[in-house]
Amino acid sequence: MSDIRADEHGTGEAGFGDFVALLKPRVMSLVVFTALVGIAVAPGAVHPMVAFASLLFIALGAGASGALNMWWDSDIDTIMRRTRRRPVPQGRVAPGEALGLGLALSGLSVVMLGLAANWAAAGLLAFTIFFYVVIYSMWLKRTTPQNIVIGGAAGAFPPMVGWVAVTGGIALEPVLMFALIFMWTPPHFWALALFMRDAQGRDDYGRAGVPMLTVTHGRRVTRAHLLAYTLALVPVALGAGITAIGGPLYMAVALVMNALFVLGAVRIWRRDEAAAAADDFAVEKRFFRFSLLYLFAHFGAFLAEAMLAPLGFGGW
User: Fold this and answer.
1) CB contact at 8 A, 93 and 83
2) pLDDT for 203
3) pTM for this predicted structure
4) Which of 8, 156, 286, 311 supports an S-S bond with 182, CB 3.0-4.6 Å?
5) What mean pLDDT do residues 169-181 have?
6) Which of 202, 224, 197, 200 minimizes the C-alpha distance to 213?
7) Which of 49, 51, 57 is nearest to 112 (CA)?
């Protein structure tokens, strides 16, 4: 264990923005959006205040997970270029403060979601936080190259939590929304791993001792896995379109986005490492950025179908 995790005292004055950063607001925005879609597409009516409260407490749960992750990963965050400017490795927030905030928000978010919506949704949110912090961060991330494959489930639960907040139960549609994010996560993060290197060209994850696929099996194998998971993602994305939450608009979006996503994955798979390094991994960076648009486009189309349905246009 590194010294930074044992040090319970920050070396600088933490500002409000530092505590906001602990909650990983960019990740939280994706969680809130997919949870909102889960609420919007769920059958049955829900009071707007219940929907708002559910979103708020799901967001707090996501923030709690981020704070606990930054507490646990403070040692490797110091090493990695992508994470070394976070408030804990920079010494602006003490690890103990991140731990305390994460635990407090975890309890608050779960209890309040149970009171605002139902205890099934609260239980699923509690499991999501546990999965991300304990199963992924504490166990999988540092022990297996399947870390991001299995651990991706943590980011896939929010639309399911939103659905359960409305209905109190599970159906095929939230499972497919879960599967869409779950299958999307490995290509998204492997693209990031392919271009995350320091000034000397050393793999960021390798320097931190994280057994990402690029470290354990090499970059050629990572490129092949990225393509394989992208191809496996296509039937999941299209399959969701023929359920009650899909429709012609969603299918049109899915067909275009998946064709472009597969094309990008094929380009990455065919890449020569020397050529990739020569252009500063431009193809990999474009694929990573496009992967974010890919996910937002699919869930945006789900939301559009739900909004058009009362007008007689959405759905099948």
Assistant:
1) no
2) 77
3) 0.92
4) 156
5) 97
6) 224
7) 57
What does the alpha-carbon distance between residue 146 and residue 177 come to, in Å, rounded to a whole number?
21
Q: Give the pair of three-digit tokens for residue 174.
A: 């939230």
Residue 43 one-letter amino acid = P
Among 9-13, 35-39, 43-47, 259-263, the range scoring the smallest mean pLDDT is: 9-13
CA distance 289 to 180: 17
**Are the CB atoms for 35 and 163 separated by under 8 Å?**
no
| Rounded distance between C-alpha atoms, residue 106 and residue 81, angstroms | 28
Where are any strands of DSSP class E within the chain? none
Taking a C-beta distance cutoff of 8 angstroms, is the pair 208, 78 a contact? Answer: no
Q: Is 252 helix (H, G, I), strand (E, B) or coil?
A: helix
Contact 197, 203 (CB under 8 A): yes
Distance from C-alpha of 36 to C-alpha of 24, rounded to nearest angstrom = 18
Rounded-to-integer distance, Cα 15 and Cα 2, Å: 25
Name the β-bridge partners of 103: none
Cα gap 82→78, rounded to integer Å = 9
Burial call 246-265: b when 16+ CB within 10 Å, e when fewer: bbebbbebbeebbeebeebb
Which tokens hold the place of 122? 């609260």
CB 93 within 8 A of CB 22: yes
Distance of CA 273 to the CA centre of its chain: 27
Neighbours of 205 (CB within 10 A): 26
Radius of gyration of the chain (CA): 20
- 203 has which bridge partners? 197
**Helices (runs of H) and strands (runs of E) counted in the chain:** 17, 0
Compute φ and ψ for 203, nearest 5 degrees. Answer: -65, 130
As given in the structure block, the two tokens for residue 293 are 């648009």
Cα–Cα dist 228/63, whole Å: 32
The amino acid occupying position 178 is: F
Give the pair of three-digit tokens for residue 277: 């390094």
Smallest CA-to-CA distance from 167 within 310, 43, 48, 306 is with 43
